[in-house]
Amino acid sequence: MIVGGDEVPKWDIALEGLAKEAYRMKGGALNIDDFHRLAVDNKIRFDDIMVTMFELCIHGEWQYIKDSAPVKITRETLDQLYVNARLQEKDLRGFTGEWRPVLRDSVATA
Fold it and tell me: Which residues are CB-contacts of 110 (< 8 A; sequence separation ≥ 6)?
């Protein structure tokens, strides 16, 4: 999300768009297999999609749910997964839950 006119998004907005479209098409939360499919279908790196998803969670745009409960994703969570400036697929095996956008009230309040 761009807060100010000069602020650069903290994630890849094109990958965010792909994830939102996949969520809409699936009609529900996404899992690691869905992100693998997105990577293959769009010829992009799986770790790039996952970094974007972690950033979206860190900034409160998406949430990660495991065992029916939200799991807080922090900068530390992401930093611990980085190896040589890349997320390794083996390190993401524990993320067996689901990812979904945070639903916001679309009605403006006065």
Answer: none
